[in-house]
Amino acid sequence: MTPTVPRHIAVVMDGNGRWANRRFMPRFVGHKHGVDALVRTVQACADRGVEYLTVFAFSSENWKRPEEEVSGLMGLVLVAVSRYLQKLASEGVRIRIVGDRAAVSDKVRAAWDEAEAATRHNTRITLSVAFNYGGRWDIVQACRRAIAAGTPAAELSEERLAEFMSLAHAPDPDLFIRTGGEVRISNFLLWQVAYAELFFTDCLWPDFDGAELDRALAAYSARDRRFGSVKPAPVPAPDVHGVTSSS
Ligand code: IPE
Ligand code: IPE
Ligand code: MG
């Protein structure tokens, strides 16, 4: 039986731009409200006993967006960290950033470092923010680091490679949620979602809240996770004569 509460939820926070467009506002306003939805969701997950939440905030491919939107998103990182870090830290949230930090500015890198350092001893919930992250990038960087660490080809097993993946600090996600109505992975956690339960919702990310999370959790509870195995056959109930009903 699937436990009601997944240990690890991964979320593609999609739909910010459309949320703003529907209100005749610039896309950036949607991203701002998206930060509020994230803080709300961290709280809602922690309240429900979820131990790990991993969110897709900026993909390796999002650099293709107009310069103005990209710089707006980078600025939003700084605003979000200064506005919410103390609150999250005091609520027991441990923050980890996953992704390629080489391409982001010194200011953004410093904000990430600060967020990680200020929350490193927290244990209530681990929030991993995927920023300048791509699932393919992750697999390649893990291979590179495994080789650099001297792993012989014959010893490069799934378990060994997993030690170098950027979410090595978390178990694989149990539940993968994508908001915004698109039904695709968009190069998020390709390696780690091998056996995650997938949940897609039309809800746009800035509207995401505890009620929408509960819908995803209810769907998750109804899933039958087999991991490639088979479910044990139900034991037939004996009838009144002591003969099983299937005989
Ligand atoms: C997701 O919302 C946030 C980021 C990719 C940074 P979008 O910006 O993709 O919003 P839509 O999909 O255009 O509505
Ligand atoms: C995925 O959303 C990336 C993030 C939510 C950060 P996109 O909006 O970039 O994905 P596509 O372009 O619809 O596949
Ligand atoms: Mg999108």
CATH class category: Alpha Beta
Small-molecule binders: 3-methylbut-3-enyl trihydrogen diphosphate, magnesium ion
The largest beta-sheet arranges its strands as: 3-4-2-1-5-6
- In helices, the fraction of residues equals 25-40%
Largest sheet: 6 strands, parallel
DSSP summary, beta strand count: 6
Number of helices: 7
Question: What name does CATH use for the topology?
Answer: Undecaprenyl pyrophosphate synthetase
How many domains make up the coordinates?
A: 1
* Mean of residue pLDDT values: 95
CATH superfamily: Decaprenyl diphosphate synthase-like
SSE run: EHHEHEHEHHEEH
Explained architecture:
One of its GO terms (cellular component) is cytosol. The protein has helices at 16-21, 27-47, 67-90, 106-119, 135-148, 158-162, 210-221; strands at 8-12, 52-59, 93-98, 125-133, 175-178, 197-200. The longest helix has 24 residues, at 67-90. It has a 6-stranded parallel β-sheet with strand order 3-4-2-1-5-6, sandwiched between helices. The mean pLDDT is 95. The protein has a single domain (8-221), classed as Decaprenyl diphosphate synthase-like (Undecaprenyl pyrophosphate synthetase, 3-Layer(aba) Sandwich). With 247 residues, it is of the alpha/beta class. It contains 7 helices and 6 strands; from the N terminus they run βααβαβαβααββα. Bound molecules: 3-methylbut-3-enyl trihydrogen diphosphate (IPE) (2 copies) and magnesium ion. Residues 13-18, 58, 62, 73, 180 line the site of one 3-methylbut-3-enyl trihydrogen diphosphate.
